[in-house]
Design a protein that fits this description.
The complex is a heterodimer of chains A (193) and B (117).
Chain A lengths: L9 H20 L5 H17 L11 H26 L3 H12 L6 H21 L3 H11 L5 H7 L7 H21 L1 H4 L4
Helix pairs in contact in A: 1-2, 1-3, 2-3, 3-5, 7-8
Chain B lengths: L3 H10 L7 H12 L3 H8 L6 H5 L9 H12 L3 H17 L9 H12 L1
Helix pairs in contact in B: 2-6, 5-6
The chains are: A mainly alpha (193), B mainly alpha (117).
């Protein structure tokens, strides 16, 4: 495989030949999902294979299928992440309010309360997201997913071909820095309105 | 074949990945104040070819010269000019003069860590 042989033009050919088909496949699989999200994930899957081609094992199927399955998994993970984050943003206080509202339906519509809170959550996520570059945000998402494998972070950082010790050092440095920034943002996320 | 607009977007996104040629050539273009057509002109290629060029692996290390020759041959570029632009990009990155968008993630991490020490 030209990618494994480090042919410098191979990543370009990979994108030219497979990116379009991958985006179209994701659009068919997830017709109601944000197109930007799907296109971004398609890009990332192509980048990931370009940078770490050994993750693809030809004996297990053709490359188009591998890319589609990897992208589908990443979209499902992204959607699950967003759902989890939205749920975290509903404080217990509102759950109690919802329970009371169920008994006195004139006071508040539970569906509206949930909807409002989800809108707030989405806004908060967007505010936090805006403070990171796209590549930083990918690292943050991997951290939030509980990913611990250095090679996943190293691939995102373009360090796949560096020695493992160097990968570990650089990955730790980037993760520590992002975690410090996330901690500084805690007051924004934990505001009590 | 991939729609050119998807390829162009992917190439821009690749700019913050040191693995891709986009990271070097966009850094150079930013420092020189070049837009994409101007960068294509500087490289001596059609603007339509630019995304595919930017999505090549960035030449590095011992294979730098060979990588440059291979990319140049594939896209009918002047290899000496491509090598010159890449060396300039490297120098700009080393000097930290590449302007917004921000320096690479790794460089930013180093800067912040040094500032906190």
């Amino acid at each position: 495989m030209r990618l494994v042989a480090r042919d410098p033009t191979a990543p370009s050919d990979l994108a030219v030949l497979y990116l379009g088909g991958l985006i179209q496949a994701l659009r068919r699989l997830f017709p109601r999902t944000d197109v930007d999200l799907l296109e971004g994930i398609a890009d990332e899957v192509i980048f990931s294979v370009a940078q770490a081609p050994q993750q693809y094992l030809p004996e297990r199927g053709n490359l188009a299928t591998y890319l589609r399955l990897a992208a589908r998994r990443d979209v499902l993970n992204a959607l699950a992440r967003e759902r989890r984050r939205a749920r975290w943003q509903i404080p217990l206080r509102d759950v109690e309010l919802l329970q009371r509202a169920g008994n006195t339906s004139q006071e508040a519509d539970p569906a509206e309360l949930v909807s409002d809170r989800l809108a707030d959550a989405a806004s908060l996520i967007a505010q936090v997201h805006a403070r990171f570059s796209s590549s930083e945000w990918e690292i943050v998402q991997l951290i939030l997913d509980g990913e611990r494998r250095t090679e996943r972070f190293a691939a995102l950082l373009g360090l796949a071909d560096r020695p493992r010790e160097e990968q570990a050092r650089e990955v730790k440095r980037v993760k520590d820095r992002l975690l410090r920034r996330l901690r500084r943002l805690a007051p924004l996320v934990q505001r009590d309105d | 074949m991939t729609d050119p607009k998807w390829l162009a977007r992917a190439a821009r996104r690749a700019a913050d990945r040191p693995f891709f040629l986009a990271s070097a050539l966009f850094a150079y273009a930013r420092a020189e104040g070049l837009d994409e057509p101007a960068l294509a002109a500087r490289l001596g290629c059609a603007v339509e070819s630019l995304p595919a060029i930017l999505l090549c692996r960035r030449p590095t290390g011992d294979t730098f010269r060979q990588d440059v020759e291979q990319i140049a041959a594939r896209f009918a570029l002047d290899s000496a000019r491509l090598a010159e632009l890449l060396r300039l990009a490297e120098a700009l990155e080393a000097l930290g003069t590449a302007v917004e968008p921000a320096p690479t993630l790794l460089a930013a991490a180093r800067d912040e860590e040094e500032a906190e020490e």
